[in-house]
Amino acid sequence: MRVAVLLLTRDVRALRTLTRPNWLRRALAWIIFVAACVVMGLHNSASPTQSCTDAAPCLPDVPAALTAGLLVAAAVAGFLHARVAAWLASGFAIAVVGYDLLHPALASPEWLYVIDVAFVALCFGVGKVDRARPASGTAMTWLAGVRHERPPAPPHLPRPTVRWGAASVACALVVLGLVAWSWFGQTGMDGRQRASTTVVGEVTAQVDDVTVRVRLPDGRLTDIDVLDARGHPVGQPLALYTDAAGLHQPVSEPYDLTGWLVLAALAGGVGLACRVRGAERAAGLRALFDQPQPVTQVYVRAGWGRVAVYPADARPGEPAITELRCLPMTQALLDAVPADDSDDRQVALLPTRPALLYGVPAPEHWCTVVVDGIAAAPVRPLRTKVGAPPFTEPVTATGWRDPAFGQLPLRPEEVDALSAADRDDNPYQVHTHIQHWAIGYALIAAMPLVLVTPAKFLPTLQYGTAFVIAALATALACAVGWRLFLRSRLAWNAGGVAVVGAIGSGRFRWHQVHRIEPDRRDVTISAGASHLVVGAHGGVGNVTGLGSTGHGSTGRSAEQLANALRYAKERTAPDVDPPRLVTPTPPAGLYALWLVTTPLIAWTLQALSGR
Q: Of the candidates 204, 268, 206, which has an alpha carbon nearest to the alpha carbon of residue 237?
């Protein structure tokens, strides 16, 4: 039987291409919502409006409410399941055509049907864009090269449909409640209107867009809700249903509770989307344990209900590649943790251990891990967001292993990313790195500009005073900038490294250097008690020129510089002496920069002060 291959960091990067990025999935869901809003606005503005009169009142219209509810449901369901939104949109388009055939006087313009069909096609198109991409390129090569086998079944299989099923049941109850509320309320109000007395009042004012003030025959004034106050001008008579219990309902606009059916259709569409999502979750879990899956060797660290997964070439401090949400691991895993007097069995986070990973470690895919023959029971597919702790050294069979403070060798892809100059294996070749002067001078010139905002709150300054402030600020910027941006430099070969940092300098053999750490814009070299920081900006990078033996490449970022140093450290030659560096002094250009920028900063401070 073939041994499971190691899951490496480069494999994880390739497999992440199997999932579409989060921004694209969110954009697709919002496309359906925005398109539905556009369709809704076009129907409201272009469709004929029914004129409500006493002879032809605007009666409650259940089909119209349900038709509008299908469109609203499609807009919201798109965030949960695009294909469900497509079927809801299809129902809306069919319902619109059917309603217009039964009500020709209210039929929509023909071009609106084209818009409805285009909306349905858009929803189906979005639904065809699966959350997972088909394998291609490096990912396909990886999938074809690893061993596939069925994972062992966990002691207890979870039920991933419970939450989605509960959500769909809740939506169904909401639908029943809204329909019952609408039906009982409408039936009661219809009976009340039939038993009421009809009186004619006079409109005296339009309170707002949906409220008018009416004078009743007995002289009392009352505010009445209407569909559109503009359809009831002042002075117009208005027939009302009235009774002793305070009913005042226009005869042309009978009481209408069908608006609740729009919310019922919305809840039904959301419940359907939840039901389909739950069914897909259940099918994905069954496929994980019923079909052969890729098997790879990884490291895991289990917590309560979560398992962090790290690649086989993970290094201390590096993040997890993914995180499984699963049923709490069984007691057998806890029994594998070495016990001592402090009772480490009660810790909430277990140590790092080797394991087998079954499945594709990419978001939206189902995976499980097997530790000592025990499989974790996942409750959901992998997610993009990972909150697991960084990688730590695993526990050996004899107990805890002391952490390795030295760094692991460079990965092959990190070596390949180095320039040809930095991969020169000549042990005597000296490589150099000097921060480009243009970056340093630009940053130094910009530092005194922090005075611009406070200058607005100062009283009006004389030029002499402003010049003194500017001279001091610029001198401080030059002194700090020289240390941070211009002074640092490196020279190294197979024997060691010479460093002039922002603060301090040193010359070390490689066995004295125990850590080389890149940051965003600098590299820290730790040798003994010394921690020397050297700047590195990718794009402009370093320049070469430390003598005729200087050898380097331009454009090193902090990570590239750190990897170049580590590459040389891995090829240590004990008989080669480290290069030497002379600690530089501030150049004449720095003084020239002070002379040029001081009057400009002074003029700016004087112009802005007193405002």
A: 204
Inter-helix orientation angle 22-46/110-128, to 10°: 170
User: pLDDT tens digit string along 516-527?
Assistant: 888 777 888 888
526 closest CA partner among 499, 561, 492, 552: 499
Q: Give the up-direction half-sphere exposure of residue 268: CA atoms within 13 A in the CB hemisphere.
A: 19
For 41, half-sphere exposure in the C-beta direction (CA atoms, 13 angstrom radius) is 6
Structural contact between residues 300 and 371, judged by C-beta atoms closer than 8 angstroms: yes
Task: Give me the sign of the Cα torsion angle 304, 308, 314, 315.
Answer: negative
Q: Under 8 Å CB-to-CB from 186, ≥6 apart: which residues?
A: 60, 255, 256, 257, 258
Report the alpha-carbon distance of residue 357 to residue 324 in Å, rounded. Answer: 11
- Split at pLDDT 50, 70, 90, the class of 210 is confident
Which of 250, 139, 132, 134 is closest to 199 using CA atoms? Answer: 250
* CA 207 – CA 229 distance, rounded (Å): 8
Interatomic CA distance for residues 135 and 145, integer angstroms: 13
The answer to whether 322 and 272 have CB atoms below 8 angstroms apart is: no
Measured distance CA(307)–CA(567) in Å, rounded: 34
Place of tokens 């594998």: 336
Under 8 Å CB-to-CB from 170, ≥6 apart: which residues? 271
The burial of 494, by beta-carbon neighbours within 10 Å (0-12 exposed, 13-18 middle, 19 or more buried), is given as buried
Contacts of 196 (CB under 8 A, 6+ apart): 241, 242, 243, 247, 249
Going 329 to 330 to 332 to 337, the CA torsion angle's sign is: positive
Distance between CA atoms of residues 399 and 336, nearest Å: 10
**Residue holding tokens 């039906």?**
183
Give dist(CA 536, CA 542) in Å, integer. 7
Mean pLDDT on 289-309: 88
Task: Say if CB 221 and CB 228 are below 8 A apart.
Answer: no
pLDDT at 605: 81
Q: Count the residues in the chain.
A: 611
Measured CA to CA, the distance from residue 91 to residue 266 in angstroms comes to 13
Q: Does the pTM exceed 0.85?
A: no
Tokens of 524: 């820290």
Nearest Cα neighbor of 271 from 127, 170, 180, 179 is 170
Q: Which helix (H) or strand (E) holds 224?
A: strand 221-225
Between 179-188, 285-294, 369-378, the lowest mean confidence (pLDDT) is in 369-378
The DSSP call for residue 212 is: E
pLDDT band at 133 (very low <50, low <70, confident <90, very high): low
Q: Answer whether 291's CB lies under 8 Å from 366's CB.
A: no
Strand pairing report for 430-434 and 489-492:
antiparallel
Separation between Cα atoms, residue 485 and residue 482, nearest integer Å: 6
